[in-house]
Amino acid sequence: MHVLPKPPSFKGPEESFTGDAWIDVIIRGEPPSRVRVNTVRFAPCARTAWHRHANGQTLHVTDGVGLIQSRGSEVTVIRPGDVIYTPPGEWHWHGGAPDNFMVHTAIWEGTGSDEPETEWGDHVTDAEYAAGPPEDRRG
Fold it and tell me: Strands 35-42 and 21-28: what pairing?
């Protein structure tokens, strides 16, 4: 057993995020492991672009209030303790609520091949982000 070195935090790239989101890589498993675990900190209104994962993704919200949506579904408010599973290939986005930061741990598996783990799509528009009753979207 040994303590792993902590890589530096990095800002989520503009191609994949709107607003300020900071990522800490917790683990990127070495073969035969394919586990991936990141902590992501979203500022209010910050969010991912639409994306999907080849092997699905699980999010565990640890702080703040956030929003998540699967394509064709309602925007859902997420809070600390919530665990959200997105199945393989399902387009979705997640981020901070309008007036709240949100922190989650993201867990997924690599593909073990040349297939991409994550496919990124269009940015979430302000209209998509604002969908749903405002009173349900606050902390």
Answer: antiparallel
Which residues does 122 contact at the CB level (< 8 Å), separation at least 6?
A: 49, 50
Please determine, for residue 139, whether its predicted confidence score (pLDDT) is greater than 60: no
Q: How far apart are CA 13 and CA 112, in angstroms?
A: 24
Please give the helix or strand (H or E) that residue 61 lies within, else none. strand 57-64
According to DSSP, the residues that pair with 90 across neighbouring strands are none
**Helix intervals (H) in the chain:** 126-129
What was the pLDDT predicted at 123? 98
Q: How far is CA 9 from CA 24, 39, 61, 138, in A?
A: 5, 10, 18, 27
20-38 tens-digit pLDDT: 999 999 999 888 899 999 9
Structure tokens at 127: 């209209």
